[in-house]
Each structure stands twice: as structure tokens, then as C-alpha cells.
Amino acid sequence: MVGPFFLDLFLLPLLLFLLLLIVLQSPIVRSNSIRSEKERAIDDSDEEWPRFDVDENGRKDYRGHALIRITPRQQRHLQMLSDLVDKSDENEVTFWQKPTAIKKNVDILVSPETKGYLSALMTANGLEIDVVTDDLQSLVDEERRTRSVDDGDKTKDHAKIFNLSTYHTYDEIMSHLDYLNSTCNSSCSTQVIGKSYEDRDLKLIKIGRLNDNTVPGFWIDAGIHAREWISPATALFIITKLLDPKHPVGMSLVNRYRWYILPLANPDGYEYTWTTDRLWRKNRSRHPDPTVKCRGVDPNRNWDFHWGGKGTSSRPCTENFSGWQPFSEPETRAMADYILSISDTLAVYLSLHSYGQFILTPWGYTTKIPEDFKDLLALGNLAAEAIRKTHGKRYVVGSASRVLYLASGGSDDWAKGVDSGNSLRPIVRSASRVLYLASGGSDDWAKGVAGVKYAYTIELRDSGKNGFILPASFIIQTAEELLNGIRALASGVQVQVRRIRGLEEEEET
User: Fold this and answer.
1) pTM (2 decimals)?
2) Is there a cis peptide before residue 307, judged by omega within 30 degrees of 0?
3) What are phi and psi of 39, to 5 degrees?
4) How far apart, in whole angstroms, are the C-alpha atoms of residue 424 and residue 80?
5) Residue from 92, 228, 385, 459 carrying the catalytic annotation
6) What gap in Å lies between CA 166 and CA 148, rounded to an integer?
7) Alpha helices (H) in 130-263, listed in sequence order
8) Is residue 459 flagged as an active site residue?
9) CA-to-CA distance for 463 and 459, rounded, in angstroms?
10) How does pLDDT run across 252-270, given as a tens digit for each residue?
């Protein structure tokens, strides 16, 4: 008979081996080894890496991918989700809204292979899962179906077929800018300020009193993150209304500012979202190290101001890869060079993104705030109030490091000065609750290097129901409310400029 000691001696190593095998087969652990292999891989082929399933049209297939929402209720929940961000393969578990605070929703896109594991992990930790959609591909298909319905009659002239209430391809956007340039007389002009990695135009349109250097400048860029389709669509709406002599808001703004609008700051990535992967975020550049096969850099982590700090990644396969050096990307270099060339007269810098409904001021790289934060906050709240009065949507205002991803779903005691009876009072998150930083961003650079006093990033609709795949039916309302917000912001800037000039004149006398 075999004794108990012998059984223990035999079974214990066997059980440990089986347990190790199970752990190694979990998607999250496997993803770590896959990640390192990807970034070291020596592969002479030009095939897309990482590889993914495609549909009959060669586009990435999101069939069976689920968008889920989790709300951490305790600190241990928050820590577990944060660990998951660090350990997960971005191609199996992608965080649309990262874990940053207790009671703040976390949005996660999960592949079919990872659903079961993630569900078991959340259940084991006492967390409930809210399934926003269990098949993301259905939302993508609906978006494309709506696009085909709204495409218009190609036999009509451009002014009649260019529909502002639908999304447009890179070529269509460039054609629209050319059409506007050919019909606006002397009130606008287009300029190619640079080329993308794949040699597409970075086409800017200038609107207003172009030859009057006494008029302050107002910069808007959009589409720096490829998948955020609502931002270029909103920029196109604003451009069109600024050039419409019958539009009262547009005309009032044109008479007071020179407008510099770049509706598509990442044309390669944007085109890739149409042809291959709807949810691609970065540009499409290749790393100078040929052994690195993952493509693209996050253009909003590539600016030369506290580059490579918190909220960025040095791993090329991650979505927030900051590049191999600051301004490694032709798109960000071209934008920076042009902004510096007009910075002496530039009063406002706006960068349009999605999603979340925020008006964000610098700084994003640190929890500290600029010395003139009160000025930035006051004007941001003016814009937010104008937005709210348009269609009832509320945008939270504050510095990027203090507000971003801490607003919706957060407990009331984090907010200072929130008062339903006075919507203009500042909304500021406690520094002790700051959990999200993003270094190397364009708005930080615009303020910290180019010296633009009023620099903002605006996260457009929605607050999470649709995320990056915002239906085209929301384009017009999103753009209308933002245009009103911009009018309020522009008026506030002029008031503050006059006040500052008055103080300077008093000091001289």
C-alpha cells in the first residue's frame, strides 16, 4: 500500500504544475508574453502586426467583441482594474475609459476569447458587468449603413451633396476644403502645412480678416486621434458656418478673429479607420528600428513638452506610445512649426477630441495648475454654459490632470463649487483624487512652449453610451452646441484682453 507521505510527495508537484498551466493559458498572462514577442519580432514581411480577423472587405472584424462597463466601488476594485490595464494585451482587452476613481465608470472592449475570463475575474472580485453592447460590429455596420444612405446624389453640385450630418472620408474632406477655397472669395484660403507619414496633405483653412495682423488668431485642430470621427465632422461644420454669410454666429466670429482650422490632423490614421480598423487611434508611421513591427505613434503624446512622462508608453504596440523621440512624427512637427509661426497673434488654441464631454485646460503632465488657471477656468465655464443652453448637454471644466476621467460617475464630494443654482461656478476635482496624467499633449505644448494663453482640449459627445462610434445623427447637435460654446469663449477672451490692456495702460500712466 502506498503511504500518505508518498501521495503528498507525488500529488503536490502535479497539482502545482496543473495550476501553473492554467494560469499561463489565461488571456491576460498570455498577452504579456505575446506583447514582448511582438516588440522584439524580426519579421521581414510587410503584413500587418499584430494580426487580426478581417471581414469579407478586408476590415477588422469586431463580431462578438463586447463593450462592457464596470464601476469600481472600493479601492481594491480600482487597484485590480489598474493592474489589468498594465498586464493586458491592448488587442484583447482595450480600455476606452481607464480606471481612475471609485464610482467612475470604466469602459472596456473585450474580444470573444477574453469575455469568459474577464467575466469570471469581475465576479470573483465582487464587481458587476454592464454590457453596453455584446457585438460591437453591429454598431460599426449600422454606422456604415447610415453613411451609404446619406451619401447623396453624385450628379448634383458639391454644395448640395456635401452633407454635414454624415461622416466623410479623407478625400471627401480635402475636396470640400478645396471647394470652399474656390468659392469664398477673399474671406478664406487653404494651405498645406505639411505631409503625413504616408504623404497625405495636412490641409489648413484660414478664415476671416487674413491680412489684418491686429486681429487675434483662433486655432482649432481635430482628428488627432483617428477613431474620433465626431471631431473632424464638428470642425467641418464650424468651418462651413464661419463662411456662411447668413449664419449670425459664424459672421460675428469671423469679424473678430482670424481662424486657423486643421480638420484632419492625423489623415493616415483616419483613412485607416475607413479601410481597415474602425477603432485605430494612432498615426501609421513605422518605427526606425526594423525589428519593431507594430505601427503608429499616439500624436497627442508626441509633443516636445514633458514628453515621455506620466500617461505615455515607450512600448510601440500600445495605443499611447509616445514615439521614439519628441516630434518624431511628421504630423506633429508640421503642426508645431506652423503654430510657432503665428504664435505672436494666437489668442486661443482648441484641440477637438472624443469622448466624455469635458473642457480641459493644461496641465495634463502634472497635477499642478497654471498660474492663470482662474482665467482659463472662467472662460471654460462660459463655454460650458453656452453649450448647456443649446441642447442641454453638460460639459465638465477643469485641468486635464484634475478632471479627465474623474467627472461622470464620481462622488459629489470630489467636486468643489458644484451648485445647480449657479452653473458658472468652477468645477474642480480635488488634487488628492487625481489619478490620470497625460504627458506630451498638444494643449500643454501650445501653452507651455508656444505661449498661447487660452489652450484647451475639448472632449466632445457622448458621455459613454456610444463612445467612439457616435451615430451620425448626433453630428449637428454636437457641432451646434460647440459653436455656441466657442462664441462664448471668444467673447470672454476679448473681454479679458481689454481688461489686461486697461491694466497695462494704468501702470504706464
Assistant:
1) 0.83
2) no
3) -80, -15
4) 37
5) 459
6) 10
7) 136-149, 158-161, 170-183, 230-242, 248-254
8) yes
9) 9
10) 899 899 999 999 999 999 9
